[in-house]
Design goal:
heterodimer, A: eight-stranded mixed sheet, four-stranded antiparallel sheet, globular, B: mainly alpha, MetI-like fold, elongated, transport (chain B), MetI-like_sf (chain B), BP-dependent_transpt_permease (chain B), MetI-like (chain B)
Chain lengths: 339, 284
């Protein structure tokens, strides 16, 4: 349904051209959930905005690649045609529910507006539809809540309203840009639950962008790991969590706090900073921070290679080499030997 | 509490002046503005509360009638400058390319002091109420454009604008339903200040002799006529002067009050006091 091919998104800044998305390819099938994980600055949000064509042009430009949605290349559509797709076929929800609603209008009016933007129906029908949407996202007493202003809703409730607005036109694809980051942990679980229910009911495909590996493990059919504007590993949840084949993915998983850890154990972090995207390092982008880097990593820029059924990783180490390196490193951790 | 009283007082003064001006034709004696050579330059008395001028006309009646022109100029200039400034400010804040062009024009206009610009325009157009309104609107709207633009830029980066774009809402709807209502409070506050500044500017222009034609009574014209009699008939200058100060002061106080009411962050009393102090100096 959605096919991104070798997409490059670059941003012209005073310091030079930022290669925010650098040759990303992936597909999303109808009804599928694709999780995109990566740390801040890895290009996740720029990728999402590229799909929606919401990056300001200029300074953003797309030197290469295609974004094919239902047979149409979104990069070639006019602003008018894009508006017909935005909200109607592809909807998006954002990180911060507190600032994503217009504070001066009742949420009922905002829902009705979302419904009427793409569908021809009477205001009364639109209101009925709005109440139905609010019921679907689990807002109690929706008829009365229609007349409330955004500030009268809690964060979790606002995220529900935003999901309702996103669903107003029955989109085929929902892009969720860190939908739970700004919420309490208990509310996070509820929102994820809600998104799963909605997906079942509406058959919507979801792109879930997050830096929270827990969210991805619960939701995704397919996981893409992004690092410095590229996809460095792609696979099922099992592949990524149990058989990571790229040192970055492995380091990410290792840095998660564990419940069975000893109290005095320190959290493991990934040394260093994400690379400067204006002038990325030579060779593999991850080599300055990679615990297994070799001379070769300075020269070879690894491509995604097959590691299993639907499992791809970008690293020069083969599966076996990587396993033995991991064992060595884990052994060293246990003994407390500094790396 | 004190601030609340101040705002009420300001609103009360404005209401009183407006009501007196509107109803003037019903209760002012018909001959109040007639020339009466036997009653020239009388000092204030029971019969002539504010005294009389060099033609024997009642100054109280003149002050009231003059308020009509001054207020009409103020209101119209405030409205025109606000509407023009809001439209250009919204466009400049939202469209990057238009921003460049509009802001360069605005910068050019702001390079002139607004009174000087108005002076030059009136000199070119000729003095009449309409021309004064055109000149003053023209010299006051750049400030409004700047304020609206900066408010729009602030709001533009808030997520609900992006969310609106994401749901395919068109630009005109975003401009009118998302941006405009959210920048309304600085517009109203600035509009009030423009109202006050326009009254002051009209008086200044008339006083300089390039404003409304001398036959029309305005506060500025009265001051202009009174200046040669200031040593023998000070009341002739004092009362229109008081009218100007009172109106402008009330408007500025109201503007400050509105700003405090709209902006919860500016509620520190210290700041307000300092601001009001400078305004008073300016008005006087």
């Amino acid at each position: 349904m959605l096919e991104v091919k070798q997409l490059k998104t670059q941003i012209d800044t005073n310091e030079g051209v930022v290669k925010a998305v650098d040759g990303v390819s992936f597909t999303v099938e109808a009804g599928q959930t694709v999780g995109i994980v990566g740390e801040s600055g890895s290009g996740k949000s720029v990728l999402a905005h590229s799909i929606m064509q919401l990056n300001p042009v200029p300074p953003t430009f797309y030197p290469e690649g295609e974004i094919i949605f239902e047979g149409k290349n979104l990069l070639n559509l006019s602003e008018r045609e894009l508006r017909k797709i935005r909200g109607n076929e592809i909807a998006m929800i954002f990180q911060d529910p507190m600032s994503s609603l217009n504070p001066v209008f009742k949420i009922g009016d905002q829902l009705v507006e979302a419904v009427l933007t793409h569908q021809k129906m009477s205001r009364q029908d639109a209101r009925a539809r709005a109440v139905e949407l609010l019921t679907d996202v689990g807002i109690p007493d929706p008829e009365r809540r229609m007349n409330d202003y955004p500030h009268q809703f809690s964060g979790g409730m606002r995220q529900r309203v935003l999901i309702a607005i996103a669903l107003a036109c029955n989109p085929k694809l929902l892009i969720a840009d860190e939908p739970t980051t700004a919420l309490d942990v208990t509310i996070q679980a509820q929102i994820l639950e809600l998104m799963r229910d909605i997906q079942k009911k509406y058959g919507t495909a979801i792109i879930m962008i997050t830096h929270d590996l827990g969210v991805v493990s619960q939701m995704a059919d397919k996981v893409l790991v992004m690092y410095s504007g590229r996809i460095v590993e792609e696979g099922s949840v099992e592949d990524i969590f149990y058989r990571p084949s790229m040192p970055y993915t492995w380091s990410l998983l290792r840095s998660l706090p564990r419940l069975d850890a000893e109290a005095h154990e320190r959290l493991i972090n990934i040394e260093g900073q994400p690379p400067n995207l204006v002038s990325p390092p030579k060779g593999c982008n991850f080599h300055p921070r990679c615990p297994f880097s070799t001379e070769q990593c300075l020269e070879v820029d690894p491509e995604l290679t097959v590691r299993g059924d639907g499992h791809f990783a970008a690293c020069i180490l083969s599966g076996q080499e990587f396993d033995s390196e991991k064992k060595r490193m884990e052994f060293a951790d246990k003994k407390g030997v500094p790396q | 509490m004190l601030k609340k009283k101040r705002n009420l007082l300001a609103a009360g003064i404005l209401l009183l002046i407006t009501l007196m001006t509107i109803t003037a034709s019903w209760w002012l004696p018909a001959n109040a503005l007639e020339i009466n050579s036997t009653e020239r330059l009388f000092s204030p008395s029971g019969e002539h509360w504010f005294g009389t001028d060099h033609f024997g006309r009642d100054i109280f009646a003149q002050t009231i009638v003059a308020a009509r022109v001054s207020l009409i100029v103020g209101v119209t200039v405030a409205l025109i400058a606000t509407i023009l400034g809001t439209i250009t400010g919204l466009i400049a804040g939202y469209y990057k390319k238009a921003d460049f062009i509009i802001m360069r024009i605005i910068d050019g206009m702001l390079a002139f002091p607004s009174l000087l610009l108005a002076l030059a325009l009136v000199a070119a157009l000729g003095g009449s109420v309409t021309n004064i309104i055109i000149a003053l609107s023209f010299s006051f709207w750049p400030v409004m454009t700047r304020i609206v633009r900066s408010a729009v830029l602030q709001i533009n980066s808030v997520q609900y604008i992006e969310a609106a774009k994401t749901s395919g809402i068109s630009d005109p709807v975003i401009l009118t339903r998302y941006l405009l209502p959210n920048v309304l409070s600085p517009i109203i506050v600035q509009g009030t200040f423009i109202f006050a500044k326009a009254i002051l500017a009209e008086a200044a222009l008339s006083f300089l002799g390039v404003g409304v034609e001398p036959s029309t009574p305005t506060w500025g014209n009265m001051l202009q006529e009174a200046q040669i009699y200031i040593s023998i008939a000070p009341w002739f200058s004092i009362f229109p002067g008081i009218a100007i100060v009172l109106t402008v002061l009330a408007l500025n106080m109201l503007g400050d009050g509105l700003r405090d009411a709209f902006d919860p962050h500016a509620k520190s009393t210290k700041k307000t006091k300092r601001r009001r102090g400078t305004k008073q100096k300016y008005a006087a």
